[in-house]
Fold each of these.
Amino acid sequence: MGFSCGLVGLPNVGKSTIFNALTAAGAKVENYPFSTIDPNVGVVPVPDPRLDQIHKFFSDKRKVPTTLQFVDIAGLVKGASHGEGLGNQFLAEIRNVDATLHIVRCFEDPNVAHVDGSVDPKRDIEVIETELLLKDLEGIEKKVRSLEQRVRVGDKAAKAEHDFFARLQQAVSQGQAIRNLSIHENEKPFLKDLDPLTLKPVLFVANVGDQGENEFSKIVHQLAEQRQTKAVTISGRLESEVMETSQDDEERHTYLKEYGIEQSGLEKLIRAGYEVLHLVTFFTTDGPEVRAWTVSKGTHAPQAGAKIHTDFAERFVQCEVARWDELVKIGSLHKLRDLGHLARHGEKYEVQDGDVIHFVVA
Ligand SMILES: Nc1nc2c(ncn2[C@@H]2O[C@H](COP(=O)(O)OP(=O)(O)O)[C@@H](O)[C@H]2O)c(=O)[nH]1
Ligand SMILES: [Mg+2]
């Protein structure tokens, strides 16, 4: 499965509208706070000119772009961490995504109710952040209690973990997201079964009306910067309408240009998303396909292989790696191998953006 991004935000901020714009999937859009009962999942191809260039040498093979999966997550409201609204369902859905797109309402429209009565990006962002922090805190407190117990009965192994979670508890209760804390390599395994929500990378999306950037969206960009991430501005409704009425990509761009929009929301998101979410793309040319894949930066070769075939991680022997631009220069992996230009790596190899990888499995 591809990398998945969950759209989160208060009701009526335009999550489903933007989801539509992104996936053109036609999810149900209604002016009603709890309308998104089922998660809508949409898969979109990620355009990549490097894949096009590689494919030129393998024109008998199918070209398969990498994909991003978007999940339109059920409305999050104040109190969701305690099960208010669709709180529990929301939490189950957000656990499964790799990253969050935090949609913020930046358009004024008397016909579209706002849960808190007015447009206020800072307040809205803080409501969502607080719910996620509270949920994480609940899990952390449980951990601290059980670790305290173990430390008390003399379990020496529990000491480091206890101290780690005590430190986390302090930071999270002061409103700090876990993704922004410095966590030592040795401590990372402690977080594995907790799988905290505020550890997931976040990218903000300012949903502006048809006019484009405004005073509210500027605030969203500032708040994103303060949080060491980015924001993109999308005219949600306009783009979803364009998606529905245009036949192809070219027509889409022509329409958007008429409104002064040079890059579609999807293009902006992909560009900012790969950077902020620390994603890398690698390529494979084995079998009947030339294909692009998305993994997080720092992913080791066997886990990258597991994207292709689940048992590749267990059967991993080694991998042969070329840079995409070298492959395009020379034309085949065989030639690169003969020239001694293919690097061989073991299971500790971290996949780099632009790698062309041949997995050798047992
Ligand atoms: N005026 C205006 N209305 C919008 C915009 N984006 C979404 N809406 C409207 O806001 C309402 C709620 O949008 P929806 O996408 O269902 O919000 P969700 O609850 O966050 O999924 C719908 O009536 C949309 O048509 C926008 O950019 N401008
Ligand atoms: Mg919705």
Amino acid sequence: MDRFTNKVVIVTGAASGIGKASALRIAAEGGTVACLDVQEKALHDAVKEINAHSATTGSASTYLCDIGNPQAITDAVAAVIKDHKKLNALCNIAGILKLQNTLEASLEDWNQIIAVNLTGTFLMCQTALPHLINTKGSIVNMGSTAALGGHAWTAAYAASKGGVLSMTKTFSIEFCKQGINANSLSPASVDTPMSSHPKLPEGADYDLLKKILPLHGLVRPASDVASLVAFLASEDAVHINGVDVRIDGGLMT
Ligand SMILES: NC(=O)c1ccc[n+]([C@@H]2O[C@H](COP(=O)([O-])OP(=O)(O)OC[C@H]3O[C@@H](n4cnc5c(N)ncnc54)[C@H](O)[C@@H]3O)[C@@H](O)[C@H]2O)c1
């Protein structure tokens, strides 16, 4: 498949996990991928790996960007447009998770999780939308099953992802007449650095953990999620708009 030939795609969180796998998948389908992340060395390593990968027919490049910093977002999107002249899809994959006992969670942690996962995703969309309107492009935002069912210790994270799902539906309607489609995806447990060694709150109840991390084979590789990200960012999904796709093996059914 070569769905991304002559397409420019931004992927945030591209230094690791699902973002990196998505950037690779899109570059393997001919795309020009602008890889954004806050981890400088990991980002350079990821882009090097993507460009050297035997499947890559497109290309990847680095844009150091903390999506918790509005000016950094403005600068990164401007740099992508300066370098590549257009934008066909925006994949907001970057995110952070802290498992916290609600009674002990600090306001600082709450604000940080909301600032990155929700406000960062909003500002990426707001900044990129004028360029996406020019190409009748696509937005793909990262949700989580934490927004769809009760997951202990994730008040801020679940709230941030619930906000992402609602906001994505808003964009899908507000910009549909300009040719934009905006969708989200909600994975359950994916095998990435975020989920492989979750730091549990003190005294955490193992039975509650099993409700977040199904321990019997539902944990999927990031490449499974990347194939959905690529589909939603491609013209194959042009008539899919305002949808949240669960990728959870039926867990939330
Ligand atoms: N792993 C899972 O089980 C799972 C399940 C559901 C949803 N998700 C979501 O998928 C997305 C990717 O997670 P992952 O599992 O690949 O995690 P990961 O930790 O492997 O990757 C997240 C990436 O986001 C980047 N990032 C974090 N804060 C950033 C910031 N302020 N600015 C720019 N980049 C930033 C990190 O540097 C990292 O490269 C997240 O939004 C996460 O909430 C993950």
Amino acid sequence: MNPPCYDLHTHVVPGVDDGPVTPGEALRIIEKMRNAMPKGSVVAATSHFSTNMAYLAAMSRADRSCRFAEKASDESLCVIPAGELLLGIRKSGVHELISYPGTHTVLVEFTHGLFWFSVLRRIVRLLKCGYRPLLAHAERYKWATANRLRLLAGMGAGVSMSMRSLAIPRYVENAEWIISSGMCHMVTSDCHNIRDMVLGDYARETVERLCPGGWRTLAEENPRILLEDGQLPPLGGAGRG
Ligand SMILES: [Fe+2]
């Protein structure tokens, strides 16, 4: 039997973002994950949040994630509450509500078209607050060259990619590059609905085709290190400047 794997980016909480609308849909996605992932695997429910949200609204959304995670978990699949933060420049405190449980790491995304120095400024501000970013779908940003991703990893950031990008034509090339070149610490599903890929056999085969031996690092070891609040390894790789 395969060891447990970790999917640290999913949209499975019903009625809060562009993920499932009804509780029934949400539970069907969870069931698909439970059937596809090895026993004991972990899924983080990372609904969308923004540093521009009202704090009370963020608290209420975080509370819904907690309740959903508790309800969806059993001995074969553990669902943990977290969030995906659209990182702006405003000091909001939202990151404290949605970091991965027991850690000081928060999944972050950026507005498309944001310039590199604006990205860097936002990340430095988060680091100064004592929180580490895990970059969501790094393959989607034009600024995310190999050198810049290495720089961010050296500052303490984690880099993740979304398997969902492999189904979006404009992202496929970069998604394959980021896995095959070793420029991400982990793969995630970023699953929004029942049709999206989850971290099962097909995802494993895809990762192994692009990066032989990579599944163990990208889906098992690195995400586990993150949830233990440990230090992720340096990024390797080459290409794309
Ligand atoms: Fe997402």
